[in-house]
Amino acid sequence: MENVILRPEDYRPRPPAEEITRRYGIGIVGCGSIARHAHLPAYRDFGYRVVGVCDISAESAQAAARDFNIPFWTTNLAALLEHPEVDVIDLAVPAAQRLPLVETIAAAGKHIFSQKPLALTLAEAERIVALCQEAGVTLMVNQQARWAPAHRALKALLDQGVLGHLYSVLHLHRSFQDQPGSWFVTLENFNIVDHGIHYIDLARYFTGQEPERVKATTVMVPGQVAVSPMIYTILCEYPPTAQVMTTLHFNNIVSARATHRYEWFLDGTRGSACASQTELVVSLSAAPDQRQIITLHGRWFPDAFGGSMGEMLSALAEGREPATSGRDHLRTLRIAFAAVESAKTGQAVALTAPGN
Ligand SMILES: NC(=O)c1ccc[n+]([C@@H]2O[C@H](COP(=O)([O-])OP(=O)(O)OC[C@H]3O[C@@H](n4cnc5c(N)ncnc54)[C@H](O)[C@@H]3O)[C@@H](O)[C@H]2O)c1
Fold first, then answer.
1. 3.30.360.10, 2.40.50.100, 3.40.30.10, 2.60.120.1140: which CATH number matches 145-350?
2. Residue among 57, 102, 115 whose CB has most ligand 1 atoms within 8 A, to mutate
3. pLDDT digits (tens, 9 = 90+) for 22-47
4. For ligand 1, is residue 186 a contact (CB within 6 Å)?
């Protein structure tokens, strides 16, 4: 089989030019788990300029500033917004807290890089997008999975035409987050709307298509802690002319850890690819019994977070909309909410053509 050439520089996220990374100052709002374990380590590795942090918990803000050598911390959002070097606010608070914070941040003229999901209802997410548009600030949602090395490697294969026409996307994911005391188990529809939104967004990223119908199945497991199901299968149906289908299966309540998996299978008319986070396997129709195994460099956590913030800074420098802008995220969210509705009603949910 002819070897597929995929070099780390084809898929590993990297920072924009230093002139850009130095130009913009970042202020973090919400110094919890994801900010301290993913955003800040990635920004340090990529050379981004974090000038201040804010949290309602003084202990969290102070710890983030201390651990990452950040010159300014506060519990007062207004003080961070008045900081002359803050251009971008990285909003890493829980989704339910976002709207009032966005109102204040947008009114102060700061650009917003928000954690996902933007909101817990489509109406509230639309309100946030409109608010930022009216205030003339850029809004990007941190759908950072698009910058994870494994996902970018798959996308590079698609873009190079190696697989031909993509007709099937299958995601198989087995993990465990039914953890007592965590916020995951108290958030309604967590597995689809909060965590699962990554995989719904990746289906859009890989296919380049918007589904016209969504079907979903979920089930509550005896004795589970989470208030909503932690397992789903979501099917996305596209217009017939797209000639592609997506199946997402995410079982996030597998207590038998030894059977955990994370895999994507992409099938095209010229070949198939299968990827975990660390390895990509490609087999081409021209040599169907052979396969090429490519060991991937880089990691989703935290590398992808450097990639997504890099996209935000590049978009600002180039005066364009970021790839995962607030408007783009609404298209991902509407699929997630349609899946929730489908699982509740047992019916397929038709999606109207997305607006601008
Ligand atoms: N992109 C990803 O892969 C990923 C992974 C995990 C979490 N997340 C998202 O990140 C967000 C935060 O998750 P987390 O796990 O870090 O939660 P967390 O509870 O650990 O941290 C949230 C932090 O926000 C602070 N906060 C709350 N309200 C605030 C306010 N009004 N002003 C300032 N600070 C405030 C809290 O004190 C806390 O320190 C959620 O939306 C979650 O879905 C994304």
1. 3.30.360.10
2. 115
3. 999 999 999 999 999 999 999 999 99
4. no
